[in-house]
Design brief:
Length: 102
């Protein structure tokens, strides 16, 4: 795949997770939140069916947490299994809302 095609694909996947970054930027130059979203976008591009998130909100702002939980809900609706590890019971409850046993 040519570089421009890869950059377009990267922009598309980043957009799906609400990430607005230059696809040529070094991952090291991104904030923690941006790195997390980048990793989730990469998993989505690989059509991952399960994600394990270990304390993903530990260093995030309230706004970043809101964006993360919105993305988790989107993934859940798309049938992606989420294992969410946290010491914050409220976050566990928030990620479990809407989950029902079949």
């Amino acid at each position: 795949m040519h570089r421009r095609a890869r950059e377009r694909e990267a922009l598309e996947m980043a957009s799906r997770v609400g990430l607005d970054v230059d696809p040529r930027a070094s991952a090291g130059s991104l904030s923690l939140h941006q790195k997390q979203m980048l990793l989730i976008a990469r998993a989505m591009a690989q059509q991952a069916r399960f994600l394990i998130l270990d304390e993903p909100s530990a260093s995030l702002s309230l706004q970043e947490c809101t964006a993360l939980f919105a993305l988790i809900e989107l993934l859940r609706r798309d049938g992606v299994g989420i294992v969410y590890v946290s010491h914050r019971l409220q976050e566990i409850e928030q990620t479990a809302i809407g989950c029902r046993l079949a």
